[in-house]
Amino acid sequence: MAASASNSHVDLEPPEQASRSRKGRVAVLLNANAKRVTEAVRREIILAVPDADVFFTHSLDEAAFVTRRMADLGYDVIYTGGGDGTVVNTLDQVVRRLDELGVTEYPRFGVLRLGTGNGIADFFGAGDYRRDLRRSEAALVKPLHLMEIDGERRAPFFGFGWDAFVLANYDQMKQTAQRFAFTRALFKNVIGYLIAGVGKSVPQLIFERPNWNIRVVNTGGIGLKLDLDGNVIERYAPGAVVYEGPSKVGCFGTTPFYGFKFRMMPFADRTPGMFHFRTLDLHPINAVSQLHKAWNGRIDGPGVHDFMLSGAHVDFETPAPFQIGGDSAGTRTALDVRIVDRAIPCLHFD
To answer: What pTM, to 2 d.p., does this model score?
Structure first.
């Protein structure tokens, strides 16, 4: 089934007719399943940008189809909204298709604040979606570097360990909550994350204390180790081991937020062409007691290690839970990550 388009059926045009036919136009892709993408919001978006092509997708297959068509059609501006997962998938799929086509100039991307966590939307200063939709020409452009994971997916943040463990619990509890209207509503906002985190995951973490021994090798250029304030305290040559030891949380990012303005990777956007890798080895009670510091990027202790890298290979002694862009993504025993050289122009609304 094709995704619905409000203003046209451009997603159904055959490729030979569609090629670059929307030059100078705006497209909006929204996750129709997102809590904030209501019928009223749909109408307001169409009114805010009456000349745009607006698409509402109901599944990953629909989203993959529409993103491919948007790349083929050559829009100047592409907005997306409906959560960090929707944003990550849109960026990844559109850019990959553009690279396949050999397009030399990417469209500008805008992120609408229409999800639950809105980590990427916060990074780009997104506010009222109606206002932001009207500001595509006036907004500043901020470059975004993605990371490529195992040569497959691209994303501005991902991680392993406790955060992915909590997300897996959240997804499981969210599925169960769909049976009742009241619980279904709880799992569409931060309360659901807190229930999954504090209510279920923290007791499990305290008693089971899952831990992963990892080995991280610098596969990029010169790597840096930072202190709590972001000062360089050590440098690593290509091929050097930057960390070997226990890790309960590992996160990689070119954007600092994990959602709800949780500044998990405070140095993520500090150095173009590098990503922030943070590994934490803390007792669960210590981690919870420092939650307010962690939220502001100031978590501290001997188990906190921060690095700036352009490429890394990570080996896990045992399978570790994994997440990409805030969506649970199974487990990994190894991963390769590298910075993607070509930046994506994104609208910044501050």
So the answer is: 0.87
